[in-house]
Specification:
endoplasmic reticulum; Protein YIF1; mainly alpha; two-stranded antiparallel sheet; transmembrane; transmembrane helix
Length: 306
């Protein structure tokens, strides 16, 4: 039985090509070229892909960085830039305030703080109000209780803000806006007071040893009395508040008059007497302190006690 012939085409048998010779090989045998590929950086089994060895770098990487002259030069240049910037900042700050002088007002210890607080609250028992000097330089507060400082005013200001927040919270009137208003108002009053004192010294042509930091310190001592006044108002009501207000106002006026009197040097007239400037300035400063101190304390504390 014959098979169907559909779809079947008879083909002529192809002649097989002879085996390739050495000259007609299409691809080279690279089995013996592994060392050459190794030297070119291609991956082969056993090849280290981590990078060059230490002998090619001259040592370990992190340690070699500090031994590099360029790295050392860059570090020295950066250090010099940092020192130059620091000197420029200190120079700009020294135009407005002396850092060393500011450190003087914070040179206090526990013994000084306790004595100063007692003088602020009971100044009538203090006898010696003279500020001591060493080679024309006033002694720091830790060595002289009569020297002004900025530590007590700063801490008293912060304590007053915290106490105001507590008083407002007790009365259910606390809010960040009200507390911020209390802090800004207290700070503005100090600035106004210092400016008034500086203007008075200038207009009356009174030469004194008082610096701006001294005036800020003396003006900031009122916060101690304000804290005592608010505490008495919270504990004993309005009666205790007004009694504490009267006591602190009188004590602060007495303290400021006795302290400032030792630092003020009246200007002399053309005859060199200077007898008229001294009583005039003393009368002026006494009136300013007597009138404004109770008003400022009452203004800053009355809304905290109800």
């Amino acid at each position: 039985m014959d098979l169907p012939q559909q779809g079947y085409r008879a083909t002529k048998p192809r002649a097989r090509a002879p085996p390739p010779t050495a000259d007609s090989v299409l691809f080279d045998d690279t089995s013996s070229a592994a060392p050459a590929m190794n030297s070119q950086g291609y991956y082969t089994p056993g090849y280290n892909m981590a990078g060059p060895q230490n002998d090619m770098q001259g040592g370990a990487g992190p340690n070699n960085m500090f031994a590099d002259p360029m790295a050392n030069a860059a570090m020295m240049y950066g250090s010099s830039l940092a020192n130059t910037g620091k000197d420029m900042v200190n120079k700009e700050i020294s135009k407005f305030m002396s850092v060393n002088k500011l450190k003087y007002f914070f040179a206090v210890d526990t013994r000084y703080v306790l004595k100063k607080l007692m003088i602020l609250m009971f100044p009538y028992t203090h006898q010696d109000w003279e500020v001591r000097y060493h080679r024309d330089t006033p002694l720091p507060p830790r060595q002289d209780v009569n020297a002004p400082d900025l530590y007590i005013p700063t801490m008293a200001f912060i304590t007053y803000i915290l106490l105001a927040g507590m008083a407002l919270g007790i009365q259910k009137r606390f809010s960040p806006e009200v507390l911020g208003m209390c802090a800004s108002t207290a700070l503005v009053w100090v600035i106004i007071e210092v400016l008034v004192m500086l203007l008075s010294l200038y207009l009356l042509t009174v030469h004194s040893d008082l610096s701006t930091f001294d005036l800020i310190a003396y003006s900031g001592y009122k916060y101690v009395g304000m804290i005592f006044t608010v505490l008495c108002g919270l504990l004993f009501g309005s009666d205790g508040y007004y009694v504490a207000l009267a006591w602190c106002s009188c004590a602060l006026m007495f303290f400021l008059v006795r302290s400032l009197k030792m630092k003020i040097i009246p200007s002399t007239d053309s005859m060199g007497t200077g007898s008229s400037a001294k009583p005039q300035f003393r009368l002026y400063i006494t009136v300013v302190i007597a009138v404004f101190q109770p008003i400022i304390i009452y203004w800053l504390t009355s809304h905290l006690v109800r």
